[in-house]
Amino acid sequence: xxxxxxxxxxxxxxxxxxxxxxxxxxxxxxxxxxxxxxxxxxxxxxxxxxxxxxxxxxxxxxxxxxxxxxxxxxxxxxxxxxxxxxxxxxxxxxxxxxxxxxxxxxxxxxxxxxxxxxxxxxxxxxxxxxxxxxxxxxxxxxxxxxxxxxxxxxxxxxxxxxxxxxxxxxxxxxxxxxxxxxxxxxxxxxxxxxxxxxxxxxxxxxxxxxxxxxxxxxxxxxxxxxxxxxxxxxxxxxxxxxxxxxxxxxxxxxxxxxxxxxxxxxxxxxxxxxxxxxxxxxxxxxxxxxxxxxxxxxxxxxxxxxxxxxxxxxxxxxxxxxxxxxxxxxxxxxxxxxxxxxxxxxxxxxxxxxxxxxxxxxxxxxxxxxxxxxxxxxxxxxxxxxxxxxxxxxxxxxxxxxxxxxxxxxxxxxxxxxxxxxxxxxxxxxxxxxxxxxxxxxxxxxxxxxxxxxxxxxxxxxxxxxxxxxxxxxxxxxxxxxxxxxxxxxxxxxxxxxxxxxxxxxxxxxxxxxxxxxxxxxxxxxxxxxx
Length: 531
Prior knowledge:
Layout: H1 7-41, E1 45-50, E2 55-58, H2 60-65, H3 70-77, H4 82-92, H5 96-108, E3 114-119, E4 125-134, E5 140-149, H6 151-201, H7 207-235, E6 243-245, H8 247-263, E7 267-272, E8 278-280, H9 282-298, E9 309-316, E10 322-328, H10 335-338, H11 358-368, E11 372-378, E12 382-389, E13 414-418, H12 422-431, E14 436-440, H13 443-452, E15 457-461, H14 469-479, E16 487-491, H15 497-505, E17 510-512, H16 517-529
Parallel strand pairs: 7-9, 13-14, 13-15, 15-16, 16-17
Antiparallel strand pairs: 1-2, 1-5, 3-4, 4-5, 6-8, 9-10, 10-12, 11-12
Helix pairs in contact: 4-5, 6-7, 6-8, 8-9, 9-11, 13-14
């Protein structure tokens, strides 16, 4: 028989046991408090349901993400209301029946681990993850559900894909752009050489011949300006800015950009009827049409221009919007591929010749504008893409454009020009010969100039080797804030992200190079009028 224990020994043992239990309870309470704190702190919405269907744990993020009503929240926190909570969350899904079915399917499979995305009726995209929770003996005791709002991340990824595809299109055009620029450069340089040689050597050249040569050179400059303008426009990222516009002008821009790819393969046929204005973003719409035109070009072999056509047609749709058709007589698309042309990463081009995202992005752009895009094709007979866009609403129609007043000859004023390019400085000296002009090549020299002179207008290049236009703005703001409103920036279009943000934030006028004498005079007028 075990030895008998005295009452004091038993009581002491009970005290030790009670103390041990209290210690364990304290540790458990701390552990539970830490668990609750962690669940409250994480960005995800978390729900844990045990094997009986009872809510074992739920965090604040879940209530906030799923907009759970107070009464249902109290029931869930007490471990009940599981079915009601499921029913509530389903009402927020874009496809409630599919949402409920998928939840029950995953809950029925003890070992299921899954990740997917849910589209909500309010436009949000939610990433969903679920996995079983095993006990120490390996049995499944619960299931954890984790939700994260990825709406902004998906939107950012989509914007990056759009810009990447746009830049890919520009990359494909680089050879053609070089050719398009080199042609006018050839006759610009040639005509200027003839005139310079005649003036330098005193060779006989009639005045009308000299004027004609200079006019031809100026025509070439205008052609290059258009090419640069179109490329700069296509590289912009203001994807959400919309305004009423005529799709025919956007089509012409796209046709100009794709011209060199098209002209060696097909004749361009324009059937551009007047159509209702549409509310769109010119950059993104240009991207759509450019992609479709390049696809048409690549479907036709080189050297068959007389045998093939690319026809661009605009008409008014049955719903009163604009309908645009781009039809080619190329190789066509195989029947089994037609239904997949808008799928992400699907391409019939050779490896490395296409991203497989071009048409997917085009479809996304058009649908975001409230429109639709369709394709029909027959192998050997060609392909037609049709884009339909809704009309611009009367409330968003562009107001009548008031013609800009002609450039005036402002009173003689004091002007400072800051540009690291000596040719730009000399050009300003010729244009503003009747004004009090100071030209400098750096921000440092400009800082010295503003110490002693209150210039009426200050023209400053944005991008310079050492210190930028942003530095000049800061220098004026700290030393001569009275001159800040007189600052006019000049830009060739190559910005760092910091400079781009800066120019968007400041109210100062920015002239886009190349610009002419009239733009300079208008800028001077504008600055002086605001004083």
